[in-house]
Amino acid sequence: NVAVMLHSMPGGAVLPPEVIARLTELDNVVAYKDELRDIRVFHDVRALVGDRLAYVSANGEKMLRYYFLDGMGVLATAMGNFDPALINAVYAAAAAGNHAHLNELLTTKIEPWYQLREKDRAYLIAVTKESMNMLGLCGGVPRWPLWPISAPDRQALRGILTQLGYAPSPEEFEAAK
Question: pTM of the predicted model, to two decimals?
């Protein structure tokens, strides 16, 4: 049997809670990845399905605090591609219920980067890849139908990464062009 993870996402498959509940009757449906950013829908899924599934937040770190309160324990992260230590700290704060520290990390480290990433649906992948490239990691380029970020947004990303303390060298930034 192949394990299956259901995935609800805007602009894609939006599975209603009742459909998710029905699909969990299949033995190989083991997880639900939620990208809808609607905690009410997630709550309805949890009410119908309970602990029969592993729940994965695909909303990134910004929504983690709300999903954790309703029983989600797994995070699909974009920033973890270039700063796993930060994401481990965010996850640990959420798991420990340390809301003050979690909110501080989200406000100062997570949200500035996500604001640029959420500017355009195509940027969900492109900003992650460009961040990795700017930091000397192998991010590559987004594949069609997505596109690279604009030159002005590349400059904005450079500023955000520097502001967040990643401070790559100017050479690394230039090499990522």
Answer: 0.80
